[in-house]
Specification:
By secondary structure, the protein is mostly beta strands. It has one helix and 17 strands. The termini are far apart.
């Protein structure tokens, strides 16, 4: 049956089982998918509509290098994960499935960023190589993991949800101020953000990863600087935990032990 379809079908068992369709000679259709096909990858599709009538049994969809993707209509409401990579004709996030939990967008040049269109139950959001985005805005309060990479026009991170637990920031050249960090952040990565000069102290942080090229400074809520180091990361012991230089990053682990209460205990 697959030989009669106007595209190539491959089933992959590596990296988790998924079905990939590519080499299109006509518009895609999905009636041949089985109830066991839960992950679908669409590659290099120039025939719109790309997503028409995808079965509700499909829970994860990835679309890459597909100019045929002009809108998101046709995705099943039960979809939990959506990845969009280099879909340069897509302009809007309208019609995202209401039950979507994870969304990744990479280098979709015409896409207009409107966070109010994101599903209210979204938990993971990954934005990469989207220089058209000038501000992240108010993303859903449900988001727990946020990754921002190569967003050259973003200057601040106002609007981060209070429930955010993991924040990954890579190559954000215009971001200066991270004082809007949520109080309960657990993991924070800051690499390639040359204008960030200081980080606010958050007792909840268990892992803090900084680029080796930058100095660092962490403040307590009352403004006292408790951690400060040069670009070589030579200061490795602090009252709140310890810093360790590993390869090209410094990792700060806090709250593994009770914070020392006296100067002698901190030495």
């Amino acid at each position: 049956m697959a030989n009669r379809l106007p595209f190539r079908v491959r089933r992959h068992a590596d990296q988790g089982f998924f079905v990939q369709i590519s080499h299109f000679e006509g518009p895609p259709e999905y009636s041949w998918l089985t109830d066991d096909d839960h992950s679908l990858r669409i590659v290099d599709c120039s025939w719109p509509p790309c997503l028409d009538k995808i079965p509700s049994t499909v829970k994860r969809v990835s679309v890459a290098s597909s100019d045929g993707l002009i809108d998101l209509t046709g995705l099943p409401e039960e979809l939990s994960s959506l990845t969009l990579i280099e879909c340069n004709q897509l302009e809007s996030l309208d019609s995202l499935p209401a039950n979507l939990e994870a969304l990744t967008i990479v280098n979709c040049g015409r896409l207009q960023w409107h966070p109010e269109l994101l599903p209210r139950g979204l938990r993971v959001l990954w934005l990469e190589d989207m220089n058209e985005i000038e501000a992240i805005g108010s993303i859903p309060r449900s988001v727990q993991t946020l990754s921002l990479e190569k967003l050259g026009s973003v200057t601040d991170l106002d609007g981060l949800p209070e429930g955010l637990q993991k924040l990954y920031l890579r190559e954000l050249p215009e971001v200066r101020d991270l004082r809007a960090l949520p109080e309960n952040i657990v993991t924070l990565l800051v690499i390639g953000c040359p204008r960030v000069e200081a980080l606010p102290f958050r007792p909840s942080i268990q892992q803090l990863i900084l680029s080796r090229e930058q100095g660092y400074r962490v403040y307590t809520p009352d403004g006292e600087s408790i951690i400060e180091g040069d670009a070589d990361g030579r200061m490795i012991r602090t009252g709140a935990g310890y810093l360790d230089l590993v390869a090209e990053v410094m990792i700060y682990m806090a709250n593994r032990k009770k914070r020392p209460s006296t100067a002698s205990e901190r030495r």
